[in-house]
Amino acid sequence: MPMSRSAGLRAILARLTGIRELNLVLVLALVCGAVTLREPRFLQAANLEQVALSATLVCIVALGEALIIIARQIDLSVGAMVAASAFVSAEWLSNHPDGSILVVLLIGCSVGAALGFGNALLVAGLRIPSIVATLGTLAVYRGGAIVYAGGRQISATILPDSYGAIAQVHVAGVSLLVWLAIGLTVALGLTARFTRTGRNLYALGSNPAGARLAGIDETRHIAFVFVLSGVLCGLVGVLWGARFGTVDAVIAPDLQLQAISAVVVGGVSIFGGSGTVYGAALGAVIFAVLQNGVQLLGINQFWLQAVVGAAILVTVIIYSRLARRAERAERHSRLRRARPGAGREAGP
Amino acid sequence: MTRLSRLLVRWEAFLFVVLIATLVFGSQVSPYFATSSNISIALASMTPVAIMAMPMTLIIITGEIDISVGSMIGLCATAMAVCLEHGFPVEAAMVVGILVGTLAGAVNGVIIVYGALPSLVVTIGTLALYRGIAQIILKERGVSSFPDWYQTIGFGTIGATPIPWSSILFVLLFVGFAVFLHATHWGRALYAIGNNREAARFSGINVRRTMLGVFVASGVMSALAAIVLTAYLASARSDTAIGLELPVITAVVLGGVNIFGGAGTLMGVLIGLLVLAFVQNSLGLAGMTPEEQKIVTGAVLIVTLVVFSASRFLKRPKSSN
Description:
The complex is a heterodimer.
Chain A: H1 5-18, H2 20-38, H3 45-70, H4 78-95, H5 101-125, H6 130-149, H7 161-165, E1 170-171, E2 174-175, H8 176-194, H9 196-206, H10 208-213, H11 218-244, H12 255-265, H13 277-296, H14 303-338, H15 340-346
Antiparallel strand pairs in A: 1-2
Helix pairs in contact in A: 2-13, 3-8, 3-9, 3-11, 3-12, 3-13, 4-5, 4-6, 4-11, 5-6, 5-11, 8-9, 12-13, 13-14, 14-15
Chain B: H1 2-9, H2 11-29, H3 36-61, H4 69-85, H5 90-114, H6 119-138, E1 142-143, H7 148-155, H8 165-183, H9 185-195, H10 197-202, H11 207-233, E2 236-237, H12 245-254, H13 266-285, H14 290-320
Antiparallel strand pairs in B: 1-2
Helix pairs in contact in B: 1-14, 2-13, 3-8, 3-9, 3-11, 3-12, 3-13, 4-5, 4-6, 4-11, 5-6, 5-11, 7-11, 8-9, 12-13, 13-14
């Protein structure tokens, strides 16, 4: 059956709209366009930089969360890990004003890695369901950070200027933090797509029993993603202090919800096995634009949470519709291939 | 050894030992712990969490979850506050609160059941949505024009006895939920759905209607929790019960309900609630800050889970023989 030109185009179009990340870029463009129409200041460089910076921190956390959710787990303790590592690293820097930034990064990431290892021990080692285990560590880590801090706040006046300067460095006109987030997104995206570890995470997420039978070491892989999430949270903890200048133990109180929302809106299935870290990064950017748009348009701040909630609901409903349609189409074409006669009869 | 591990495996028995240990610890910490007024305080402060833990148990047994409980309470409290601001009597406000809670639970249920969507994601969405609506309506106002009799729902006691009114409400609800879950075929249906949804459907259970029912129940209970909580705090605000989902889920999991559905009892959840209430109360008496109490509560959850999984490991070689 020769395919007509328009049918070929339609097939290409269907293929393109099937790529979730492209849809997300489209949604992002629409949201940006809508905000710009009402308030042209949105496109000013200074404002765009603010949007990018606020997306950056959530984005890096969402990358780790995306890999965890792809492997059919969840990490509710990310906000607590960010707060703990931010406070410990800022405290070290306030005691060692001449300390190198690299050492601070090392300290932050080590604290994050240690806390992530705690999660890994419970989830991968003792096989406690991750939603429960990280609910417990959320309380322990957050409480521990608050008790350790003892109500202290480490502010920009105590911290050396070199710390805040991290957030001021620009490469090719774009903040170093943004480059860092882009670099991490691409690196983890490639890791998930092309390395054996990455593919194994998808396998564990879509069929844990099958993956185990295929010889994938579940314990090691699950432990790896939880430690990775901890390290990324540690990094964000250090950057948090650099960006906001003030650190205490109660920062990032609902970061886990923001990160999970970004991951879900980014098209990662909450049941694991599908989605990409690029989508999660785009999800973080979309939320940052929404937040900025609400501020710029002078909409009452109280509306922000309702807008975010509605956005989550709308996207999951659309995704499930798309997924079901794709599933139906696949079943249909499989049927056609299996029974060519039946397929021709049912064809146009 | 076998007997010990078998006893450990019976979660409620193990939890009961933890409860006794908590009570012993509490009375060691402070001579004030074992007084009737202190126990009354400990129970009254736990009631909103306890009320929400019952529908949460049903939801988790069916293999779903409801993260939006705190926001539903906030929305109900906001609805009641608006009614009071417009001069309606508090009874009317309570009715409106229950209607709003029912509606909020029904919205959750309809989206999850008829959209066939994951409850974790949907209720994260409505967590933000309901809290957002509450904030839009009430902004930063607090309404505290409750009559005196209303506040006794929160921490008043029956006559001269130390029994709080809110505990009576809880006990009545608990008996209702326990009979429903453990003595009716509707309750058995929840376990069947949690164990194998497809099989439950083929055995003639109306899975969709049942699922819708448990989410609506969560909404109705959130209105009752909102009434108790606003009475306890003597004020209704848009940020009422923020973050309540964490202690509620903690209590249910501590009570031995399988987070993946299909197993658990309300008796276990009741003991879990008592453990949490008395741990927090005795730590408070010991002069610990709320943050330190939070660590211990999280640690109690983790340690019980670790002990339970360890007891499973002990059992494994025997069962393979």
